[in-house]
Design a protein that fits this description.
Elements (H helix, E strand, L loop, with lengths): L12 H12 L7 E3 L3 H10 L4 E3 L10 H9 L3 E2 L14 H10 L3 H12 L12 H9 L7 H14 L3
Parallel strand pairs: 1-2, 2-3
Helix pairs in contact: 4-5
């Protein structure tokens, strides 16, 4: 996959034309888009087959809700960057409370929520140790109750539109 990170605002026609040429030469197998708007994704899909989109998305940063749903309907992967908040890790009393009740860490709950959010979400959380990797992997087996999901949804509602 070739992912043109940080495309310029506006049309994607020029970079996708170059990538299409590289694809024809066998130098690029798949094309993904990163840091793009829904309008750019729609344009890109008219020009080339897009296999994934990578934008910022997590419990608190939910601007791509509609885009994720649209991509899921069409079988296109969505890879959230900063799934745990990035340089400002997710901190929420609601998240901490849900995690305590489930016997998990807040970060495990945040990753479990992403995995449950849509079938097309692929996670690539960073890790700094084997213990951290195990913690991340355990999130896949975490069962979020309906009550927990309602509470977690509130985190996104609090921050939407900021």
């Amino acid at each position: 996959m070739f992912d043109p990170h940080h495309p310029a605002e506006g049309s994607l026609e020029a970079p996708l034309t170059v990538l299409a040429g590289l694809q024809r030469q066998g130098l690029v197998r798949h094309i993904g888009l990163s840091h793009v708007t829904p309008t750019q994704v729609a344009e890109g899909r008219k020009l080339r087959e897009i296999v994934c989109v990578q934008n910022q998305y997590n419990l608190a940063h939910r601007d791509d809700d509609a885009l994720i749903d649209s991509l899921a309907r069409d079988g296109i992967a969505y890879v959230p960057f900063f799934p745990l908040g990035g340089f400002s890790p997710l901190q929420s009393s609601t998240l901490s409370s849900v995690a305590r009740r489930l016997g998990a860490t807040p970060m495990q709950v945040a990753l479990a929520w992403l995995l449950r959010r849509a079938p097309n979400i692929l996670l690539i959380p960073g890790t700094s140790s084997v213990a951290h990797l195990r913690e991340n992997l355990a999130s896949a087996g975490l069962v979020l109750t309906e009550d927990a999901l309602v509470e977690l949804e509130g985190i996104g509602s609090e921050t939407r539109g900021r």
